[in-house]
User: What shape does this take?
Amino acid sequence: MTYDITNPQSVFDHVVSSIIVQGKPSIGTITRFGKIEVTCKYRGENGAKCAAGHLIPDAKYTPEIEGLASYTPQVQELIGVPDSGPIAALINQLQGAHDRAASEDGTMEAESFAKVTPEQFVESFKTKAQKVAVGFELNASVAQ
Assistant: This one.
């Protein structure tokens, strides 16, 4: 699916529809400060991608970005965000919707990730994406 990174509706539609079709969150383990943690990943198991991950071309992806927030300059450059304005804010909100939907209680605790079924994830993500759409005055029909 092609999208226009400068158009909020296009970015929203691409990310939301891609995650719904994917049908599961993008999670995996990373080592941070010498400790193994379960977390959302730009590229997860079996080709899964998080919200921002769906905007990073495969040719530009590098594992070194795992653990960096979607609003960091390194990640924004890979995505091709033109500035740190509304598009970057939208991507950050969609990333948050993905991450919170991936865990049972909306936290980033490892135990919470394992308890969410793919169906629960998709329904929770749709609800959260609809709220993001309202906040950015976008059409949420793709998240219905």
Notes: The radius of gyration is 14 Å. Strands lie at 27-32, 35-40. Residues 8-137 form one domain.
